[in-house]
Amino acid sequence: MAKSKGRVTLPSESNFLSQTKELLERWGADAIRDSDGTKLSDDVKELDAKIYTTYFVARGHNDFAQKHMDECQQAFLMSSYTLATEATVKIEFLKDYFDQQVKADYDHDPKLWWEVYDRTENQLISTDAWYVDQCTDTVIVENCKPFHEYTVSFLAYLIWDPTQMYNHITNDWGDKPHEIPFDVRKQASREYVKDYLKQWLKDNPNTDVVRFTTFFYHFTLIFNNLAKEKFVDWCGYGASVSTEAILAFEEEYGYRLKAEDFVKNGYYNSTFCVPSKQYLDYIDFQQRFVKDRAKELVDLVHEAGKEAMMFLGDNWIGTEPYGKYFPQIGLDAVVGSVGDGATLRLISDIPGVKVHEGRFLPYFFPDTFYEGNDPTLEGIRNWLNARRAIMRKPVDRIGYGGYLSLAYKFPKFVDYIEKVCDEFRTIYDTIQGVTPYCGLKVAILNSWGALRSWHPYMVAHGLYCKQIYSYNGMLESLSGASVDVQFISFSDIMEHGIPSDIDVIINAGDAETAFSGGSVWDDSKLVSMVREWIYNGGGFVGIGEPAAYEKGGHFFQLADALGVDKELGFTLHTDKYFKDVVKSHFITEDIVDEFDFGEGMKNIYALSENTEIIVQSKDEVNLAAHSYGKGRCVYIAGLPYSQQNTRLLMRSMYYAANKEADFKKWYADNLFCEVHVYPSINKYAILNNTNEYQKTKVYDGEGNSVELTLEPGEISWKEISHE
């Protein structure tokens, strides 16, 4: 059989022609791209492949930026908490920041834009009580209250693009110039980006696809004085602030945003914070602005006869792909980094573009491709995790990035990626556009809803974080599961009710976060609405601290439905009698290893004998189920991603939905394997999700079963029998 080709993008670089031609053939690639730190030579551009060229809109133009330093991008930053031991306190507000990335903005009057707070009293200090020493970057606050803590929130210029800074440090780029980001809301910058792109399009006739990386505003990534990440928020809008933006916002909305609206006690409105009305207004405001400016550039690309692609990363803020304005930009394609199944679905589910491309890992950088390391292991993990999600909703293309010359030194890795490319094309050609079998419809309920589909729990793109993995594991499990997933917000159900086709609602997160909901559960209308829905037959799965808000003698406002609550210390005088664990349960039938609840949750207890305690430790409930009217609830203390926890979640959802009888339709009894079914084309696939041999019994939709053995990572395709 002839080797299939296409749907793969290969990174290349100058002086690497013959090797590029070889891998172009072996991997079946039909497109070539450059990367941050590489350029394509003319001979590579003449190969028989589409040419992607990385295009930086608001960085990498230092000749312009250095002449317009007053148009650098900006952010409100907050100093460290500084203790006043006497009536005057000096706040060295820049000492914790990296001076090559951040400098104070003294072009705009600090008295008009900065804010000093007594954080002990949460009190804004009058501008008459402080002044700035610009020579030492110090704010001096007078008439202080001794042993109160003070901060200053200041407007800063961002003078080094953080992605280029990260790559600069990682790859030891030495004297390579620091790329200065500038703000297209300012007039000279806005005209420059359009004029430059017009000329660039004329100067690059061999470019077929302009790969915008990305548009204007970088996700929030600020470095400390040690040149290490101080804080990062992949969805943060903090680096899109400017005095022009705030004044334009005030003209439209009728109120002035303050420094504290962005700093938020030093939390910087991270995705984990319950969003305020002011912040939601600002997000909408910036998305509309970015949509208009980005469309201007995309239109220029189309007029030049080229395609426009956006990288889902770097300067992507304002172009959130699940936002209501994104389709109006008119992009042809989106490409993003695939760290796991959830990030794959983040890309593949995006509406409003024709082509969805995933950049797989590892990135061809020296932090992975070095002597003595085997990058193939990361490649296998990345592919097997992402492949589950591809079976539900495939991307249209895959690719890699970085220095191809590094990857070429590892033949085993090159061989494995050749296999990945062939397998991807087989999957795509078989199931693209085909609706897979879904046994349930599941809604993820949080403050963000559809806007943050598939990425609500990320601090940075697909990276581990200690207090997130217990929740993000739930999304990772769902990304490749045979269920239909929808993301809804509290405001959605308050305005429109709970969709009638939802089988199970999942609310997962720590108390007071945007994901659990915080004070939204103070609304009796919301609480009674969800209670009624469960009581009438709905299924509810709570993970961590669901519906958590201390009120009325409960911490979990759905405690009566969940059958569990959390002890806060107020009812220690009340004995917790109900500690008997059920001998067996539908939810745990597939368990083969120790339970893993991740961070877990302390002090969860059962409310009555009607609560089925399935797993507990130290008299604390880890896993429980409870009937509530015609409905059911399941409580889970935490859910890191694993094959076992994926099965645990699937069983929890089927149990909550009262659909246990349907669970073994299209089912593999080995939890390290999964079955994906495509009824309209009479095909199904059995996946081995490990790099080891697996034996499994597979049940079809009629209850019939067959045993088979799968090789490491194998997909076995079968025809659906209609006997």
TrEMBL record:
InterPro entries: Class_I_gatase-like, Glyco_hydro_b, Ig-like_fold, Lact_bio_phlase-like_N, Lacto-N-biose_phosphorylase, LBP_C, LBP_M. Pfam families: Lact_bio_phlase, LBP_C, LBP_M. Residues 666-717 form the Lacto-N-biose phosphorylase C-terminal domain. One of its GO terms (molecular function) is 1,4-alpha-oligoglucan phosphorylase activity. Residues 6-438 form the Lacto-N-biose phosphorylase-like N-terminal TIM barrel domain. Residues 441-660 form the Lacto-N-biose phosphorylase central domain. It comes from the Bacteria. NCBIfam families: 1,3-beta-galactosyl-N-acetylhexosamine phosphorylase. This is 1,3-beta-galactosyl-N-acetylhexosamine phosphorylase. It comes from Dielma fastidiosa.
